[in-house]
Amino acid sequence: VNPELQGRVFPPTEPYLVGREKVREFARAVFATNAINLDPEAARAAGYDDVVAPPTFAVVVQEHTLAQLLAEPDAGIDFSRVVHGDQRFTFTRPIVAGDLLTATLSVPSVKTLGGHSIVTAETSITDASGAHVVTTISALVVRGEDD
Amino acid sequence: MPAAPAFDGLTVGDIVAEASFPLTRDSLVRYAGASGDFNPIHTDEEFARAAGNPSVFGHGMLTAAFVGKCVTDYVGPENLRRFKVRFATRVWPGDSITCKGKVTKKYELDGEKRIDGEVLALNQKGEVAVSGTFSAALPSRN
């Protein structure tokens, strides 16, 4: 892994329009059976504009930024050696169907630990007004060649 | 959806969640499609075996989503401030994943009534697959 990745900020992704059926598909796939995740009327009755995405839905948007990291020519990250260590989310508000989200990736740190590298990939997600929605951070453990 | 629990009525140790989720090959395929994570190690048996695994295994973020569902069902999506999951042992088709959690701390921060909690996702042998922690801001009383 190229240590010079540390501190790099990538260009914002193309806006991601959160579709109602995508939220429902994701909710069903993770057994999120709460009515606000599936039923627009129930979501509106609870004060939301449309169905509410489960909290880990942010990774669907983050995926587009990790693709940028994967495509970075000098990153030196072999994704077949990557193990997902942890995932963090900091919310301003939940993602709701109809949101137009833009994601910006940065790499706050690259550390080496006993032959492994730990790349921290931070994706900040904002809505169409530019307001923060959620930041999600992956710790990507890149196993060394000896394993 | 039930209202968020009132901060004043909560006690450290209160149960956040206890729910079980069956993991099947079908659920891995559905999650791959829904999430866009098409790493074949989760869906393609031949690929998974060729990579040295006994079979396909579950996406860590699928188990994490079970934990997340338990957390937001308890605190309400708009009250969740922070959520973190750490991945421990892998999960396999046929596993039954049980999420169990409790409130670990009550405090005030930035003028908000906050709770912290932990939710573990365990396999049927009681091994931790995912450990989750969260912080939420709650109304003082309902």
In short:
The complex is a heterodimer of chains A (147) and B (142). Chain A is of the alpha+beta class.
Structure explained in plain terms:
- The complex is a heterodimer of chains A (147) and B (142).
- By secondary structure, chain A is an alpha+beta fold.
- Chain A is 23% helix and 33% strand.
- Chain A has four helices and five strands, in the order E-H-H-H-H-E-E-E-E.
- Chain A has helices at 20-29, 35-38, 40-45, 58-71, and strands at 16-17, 82-91, 100-113, 116-126, 132-142.
- A five-stranded antiparallel beta sheet of chain A has the order 1-3-4-5-2, covered by helices on one side.
- The relative contact order of chain A is 0.23.
- Chain B is of the alpha+beta class and 142 residues long.
- In chain B, 23% of the residues lie in helices and 37% in strands.
- The longest helix of chain B has 16 residues, at 60-75.
- The mean pLDDT of chain B is 95.
- Classes of the chains: A alpha+beta (147), B alpha+beta (142).
- Chain A binds chain B through residues 22, 25-26, 28-32, 34-36, 42, 46-47, 52, 54-56, 59-60, 63, 83-91, 93-94, and chain B through 1, 21, 27, 30-31, 33-37, 60-62, 64-66, 68-69, 71-73, 77-78, 80-87.
